[in-house]
Amino acid sequence: MISAEIELKAQFYDLDPMQVVWHGNYPRFLEEARCALLDKIGYNYPEMERSGYAWPIVDMRLKYVRPIRFAQMVRVIATLAEYENRLRIEYRILDAQSGETLTKATTIQLAVAMPSGELCLETPPALVDRVRRLLS
């Protein structure tokens, strides 16, 4: 499948009182990697909107394996796992130096036709065609 990777450094403003990255900041890290993946596919949020679809996240799951600490460099890898009926992206957050897994996550997005708000049961061709071009 198609993957994209970003690297980031945990900042002071990411931390909670226990001096580790607050759990609520992890979705932001996932979003950065998801945008890199969607850019690679050529179907990021502006292209989604131009194609007439919104793609809300309907499910997000995170498994915190080890904490991220201040100034720690991490790699966030986003991999397209499904795209034909829904957009399922799997994530791994790794320590940039050791490669140790720190977090595992998954998001699921569904296509919604704009402006009707109708849920699509199949992925629109605007995304399917782009993915298939990259895979071929």
What this model shows, in words?
With 136 residues, this protein is of the alpha+beta class. The protein is built from 3 helices and 7 strands, in the order βααββββββα. It has one domain: Hotdog Thioesterase (Thiol Ester Dehydrase, Chain A, Roll). Strands 1-4-5-6-3 form a 5-stranded antiparallel beta sheet, covered by helices on one side. The longest helix has 16 residues. It is elongated and about 45 Å long.
What labels would you give this structure?
136 residues, alpha+beta, Thiol Ester Dehydrase, Chain A, five-stranded antiparallel beta sheet, two-stranded antiparallel ribbon, 3 helices, 7 strands, 25% helix, elongated
Helix/strand layout:
Layout: E1 3-9, H1 26-41, H2 45-51, E2 53-54, E3 57-64, E4 73-82, E5 87-95, E6 101-109, E7 112-113, H3 125-135
Antiparallel strand pairs: 1-4, 2-7, 3-6, 4-5, 5-6
**Binned strand content:** 25-35%
List the total number of helices. 3
- Report the count of strand segments: 7
Which stretches of 5+ consecutive residues score pLDDT under 50? Answer: none
* Name given to the CATH homologous superfamily: Hotdog Thioesterase
Task: Provide a quick synopsis of the model.
This protein has helices at residues 26-41, 45-51, 125-135, and strands at 3-9, 53-54, 57-64, 73-82, 87-95, 101-109, 112-113. By secondary structure, it is an alpha+beta fold. β4 and β5 (87-95) form a beta hairpin.
